[in-house]
Write a structure and sequence with these properties.
Elements lengths: L1 E4 L7 H14 L3 E4 L12 H13 L3 E3 L8 E4 L8 E5 L12 H13 L3 E9 L9 H15 L2 E8 L8 E9 L9 E2 L5 E11 L3 H17 L5 E6 L12 E10 L3 E7 L6 H18 L5 H12 L5 E5 L4 H13 L2 E6 L6 E7 L1
Parallel strand pairs: 1-2, 5-6, 9-14, 10-11
Antiparallel strand pairs: 2-4, 3-4, 6-8, 7-8, 10-12, 12-13, 14-16, 15-16
Helix pairs in contact: 1-2, 1-3, 1-8, 2-3, 4-7, 5-6, 7-8
């Protein structure tokens, strides 16, 4: 059994999620100690526990320590990942509910299901657009299309939006699995010309002017930079499928280039001006744009695991070497015979090379 130090690097849920995914894929039992030791509320929270129980169900794993607040978990897969119909609800794991991230649960499950024979349908309820996690639309517009280039067939849809603290969002993902898929390597060191810059300014159960102000400020800043964005307003009143029991707002930006797509976002919160939301999202885009890198900082660490499973060497550039990226590389090396080289200082532009051995 492998033992992984959950306090290593960024010391958050990334260590746990990657370890569980790799354990399910390789059949290697794993014990994770000091889970989320670097966080204010250490141990398994509702979102993490949902991910643990979900992936355990997919590979019939034996569990020890799978309780809310636990700082040690033992995970022993008894079967390879099994395709099927699955439904998981983050709110069930904590009294009073939870807006724990749907996307982070799905990041744990999608690759194992891609290696399961047959088609799977997974429904996850919880927070779809919440802090400290990629919003649903990054998964839909950036992560899944990139996995598609590697050979993973998956698609998603959103039935309800879930904001903090209510949650209640619902996302459906379908994955077409193969017992032994041959994932293609990726060379993504240059991004090519910008083909389209577009976005969504969305709000639920708030006055429509919130979305309008986010849109106007973002377009103003981007046009000053010589760009031509197209941002749509999605509100509860205007439809677009934006159903939610909670209240929240977000600005999402997507830059589609010849080589791929990058995503950026900022969330609204009580007392935060709509214009500030727009400024934060545009600043995140600007940092990527001016770096000249191909991959946004969120996609960079998300790509490591599938590329470590690919049939050949891969390389990509990212606008920022993050602690998440370095931590994920460290976890992957425990499970797979792979070389992962990260060139560049933390916080700066970097180049990543993955060579399976």
């Amino acid at each position: 059994m492998l033992t992984i130090d959950g306090s290593y690097g960024e010391g958050g849920g990334q260590v746990l999620r990657s370890a569980l995914t790799l354990s399910a894929l390789t059949g290697q039992p794993v014990r994770v100690d000091k889970i989320r030791a670097g966080r204010r509320n250490p141990g398994l929270q509702a979102q993490h526990l949902t991910g643990v129980l979900a992936i355990a169900r997919i590979c019939d794993a034996a569990l020890e320590g799978a309780t809310l607040g636990s700082t040690t978990l033992t995970f022993t897969p008894r079967k390879p990942p099994q395709a099927g119909e699955y439904r998981f609800d983050v709110s069930e794991q904590r009294k009073g509910g939870s807006a724990g991230s749907v996307t982070l649960v799905l990041h744990t499950l999608i690759l194992p299901l891609a290696f399961a024979e047959g088609t799977s349908r997974v429904v996850v309820r919880g927070g779809t657009h919440v802090a400290w996690s990629p919003p649903y639309h990054h998964l839909e517009q950036v992560y899944l299309p990139m996995l598609g280039r590697l050979g993973v067939q998956a698609r998603s849809s959103i039935a309800r939006w879930g904001w903090y603290p209510e949650g209640g969002g619902e996302v459906v993902v379908e994955v077409v699995g193969q017992a032994k898929p041959q994932l293609a390597p990726l060379q993504l060191e240059t991004r090519g010309a910008l083909r389209r810059l577009w976005g969504i300014s969305a709000c639920s159960n708030l006055p429509e002017h919130v979305a309008e102000r986010q849109k106007s400020r973002a377009e103003e800043l981007l046009r000053r930079a010589g760009l031509s964005p197209r941002i749509e307003c999605w509100t509860s009143q205007r439809g677009k499928g934006l159903r939610s029991s909670g209240t929240g707002s977000i600005l999402l930006l997507f830059a589609e280039c010849e080589a791929g797509i990058a995503g950026f976002s900022a969330l609204g919160e009580r007392g935060k001006p709509a214009e500030r939301v727009a400024e934060e999202a545009v600043e995140e885009f600007r940092q990527w744009w001016e770096s000249g890198a191909a991959v946004d900082r969120h996609l960079a660490d998300q790509l490591l695991l599938p590329l470590a499973l690919a049939q050949g060497a891969s390389a990509f550039t990212t606008c920022q070497v993050t602690e998440h990226l370095l931590t994920n590389a460290w976890v992957i090396r425990h499970f797979l015979p792979v070389e992962i080289g990260v060139e560049g200082e933390k916080g700066a532009r970097g180049r990543v090379v993955i060579r399976p051995r």
